[in-house]
Amino acid sequence: MKYVNVVIDNNTDHTDNLFTYLCVDDKVKVGDKVFVPFAKGNRIREAYVFQVADQLPEVIKGIKTIEAIDPDISLSEEAVATCVWMRRQYLCRYIDTIKCFTPAGTSSKRGRIRTPYKEAIGEVSTARNLTNEQRRAVEKIHPSLKEREHKIFLIHGVTSSGKTEIYMQVIETCISEGRTAIMLVPEISLTPQTIDRFIGRFGAEQIAVLHSKLSMGERYDEWMRIKSGEVKIVIGARSAVFAPLSDIGVIVLDEEHETTYKSDMTPKYDTIEVAGRRAKKNRAIVLLGSATPSLVSAYKAEQGEYQKILLTERFNKTPLPTVEIIDMREELKNGNKSIFSVSLYQEMKKNLDEKRQVILFLNRRGYSTFVSCRSCGYVMKCKECGISLTYHKARNEAICHFCGYRERIPSACPVCGGKYLKHFGTGTEKVEEVTREIFPEYTVDRLDLDTITKKGSIDKILNSFRKGKTNILIGTQLVAKGLDFSNVGLVGIVSADISLNVPDFRSTERTFQLITQAAGRAGRGDLTGKVVIQTYSPDHYSIIAAADHDYEAFYRAETRIRKQIGYPPFSDLIQIILSSEKEPEALERCRQVAADFVRNAGKSEERFVFGPQAAPMNKIKGIYRYQLLIKCFPGKRKEYSRILNEIKVGINTNRNAKYLISIDINPYSFL
Question: CA 149 to CA 162: how far, in whole Å?
């Protein structure tokens, strides 16, 4: 007979505690999924065992008994420990963290195994001869792997420097040592490419895939394959960091700088932090790879928290692409009102004539930014969020990219009755239309969130481009992340200013990264590529540094500014959002939270609290939002977290509250 403390599967702060039960099965262990009678009605609920004891420190009257133990689903002790850490680190509930580790879906009623990517045959692949830089990198990593010494390596390598080959050789050593590996990519669109490479090297039977685009059944079956020890390598987007592997030897995060590694849904975890935590518990290593490391990672490497490995050359010795910056102000002065500069058009024509492919990058989907009446100035806005709707020509609709609200384009202005409704700005849909008009003899395709709504559409678009059937690929940041096509001769960045003007302290960092990463898709074969950057800010240091392939210059300039204003990596930035159906209520509660925080933290901390103020997205789906920003300097994280968690729980357990609170530590979007 054992006594266990369990977490009830109940999505509320009221029950976010450990509950004690009696278990007659002595084999019960930490991590088991159990079924228990709960609350006054003794309704049977799912629960997870977090602690097991032979006796109780004190007598509990009316203690209830566990009804059953699930024979299939259980968590490891390491996973349970990570759940406890995540609850404290990200101010979330126990059950929020547990659901990261447990499978979605159920077993097939027909007993059929649902296998994603079963058509994948893999690229025939053997270990390549390493360059001197790659060999030195592997030699630095292997000792920690073999000696089971936890360490985090930052592999800072220029685009096409062969980081993937380093990952695979390290994983190969890891598997030979009888351990397991997790390979993370920032976008689901990159998983097919990675799967093909890994199947070719390790075989399909060694590999499982986890990401949110799989069906519920596929995710369940892959989870069970992993849990049973059938596979040694898990590939996926950020959620794959929770794969139920045992004895993990290495966790790889490719393109570690990408914002998609930070969850914006509860629990709002940082994948790099979770990977580091799991690796430490498993005495494993973490490999962070990027051509443009985040400032936080680069700073940690500079401070000695990470071990930095530098790769300065492309593995095939092809020079980095040449880069040309085009001042679009001069194009306008010269009478060119096209979205393409003369230089970009000429380079596109030249590359297409030479049978080379072209990628056009614009980080804004849709046809145009907004629809406005030229007579009275009316702008079509979302009725739920209050922001400008984006025009999508193919549907003849204006759509809100935040809540999904959409409406048909009216034939006349609803305010003045005028017929001069016009769309302004440029999105990928418009770039596609203009490109088809200018180059009608070539095949054009588009990759953005509007063209990948159906399952398999990403793979179809990328395979067509990979096989050379598509000559010109237009896309948002989906085309800038880690894609490897040898025949791309030109990358055109249609408007480098879009990310530069986002209201976010990371906007310059994102601009530098996006330009560098997009540029890195050019010239990955045997011939040097070309990049054309169109901008209205040709003198901005982030654009100049990206054009010069000079990460160090950008890093020094940006960290100098961040240090002066006390932004990450020199602090943690905590965003608190109070939301309500009534705007005065949201504002007043935001003021109250600020006052409660200062009262508990001390008057001296008030200077680090900014707000309340309307969130940049003040209204979403009819809900008003006000925010506080708190700068948390080193040594204060634990204290601030304790205070904020008490405030959050107080609000969430108040049954009369007509408002909600959301807390995000180091968010990657402040909208």
Answer: 25
Minimum mean pLDDT among 264-278, 283-297, 376-390, 633-647: which range? 376-390
For residues 597 and 595, what is the distance between their CA atoms, to the nearest angstrom? 5
For residues 277 and 298, what is the distance between their CA atoms, to the nearest angstrom? 19
Q: What is the domain partition of the chain in residue ranges?
A: 2-101, 132-311, 322-365+428-564, 370-424, 572-665
Residues forming beta bridges with residue 424, ordered by sequence position: 370
Structure token pair of residue 537: 């800010």
Q: Dump pLDDT digits (tens) for 422-468.
A: 776 678 899 999 999 999 999 999 998 888 777 778 888 988 999 99
* Topology match between the domains 2-101 and 132-311: no
Assign domain 322-365+428-564 to its CATH architecture. 3-Layer(aba) Sandwich (3.40)
Largest CA distance in the chain: 86
Helix 77-90 crosses helix 271-281 at what angle (to 10 degrees)?
140
Taking only the tens place, the pLDDT of each residue in 211-224 is 988 999 999 999 99
CB contact burial 504-514 (16+ within 10 A = b; e otherwise): bebebbbbbbb
Q: Which of 195-204, 396-405, 470-479, 532-541 has the lowest mean pLDDT?
A: 396-405
- Dihedral sign, Cα of residue 218, residue 221, residue 226, residue 227: positive
- Name which CATH class applies to 572-665: alpha beta
Q: How far apart are the first and last CA of the chain?
A: 52
3-state SS, one letter per residue, for 379-426: ECECCCCCCECEEEHHHCEEECCCCCCEEECCCCCCCCCCCCEEEECC
- Enumerate the H helices of 21-124 as residue ranges: 77-90, 94-101
Q: Domain 132-311 is in which class?
A: alpha beta
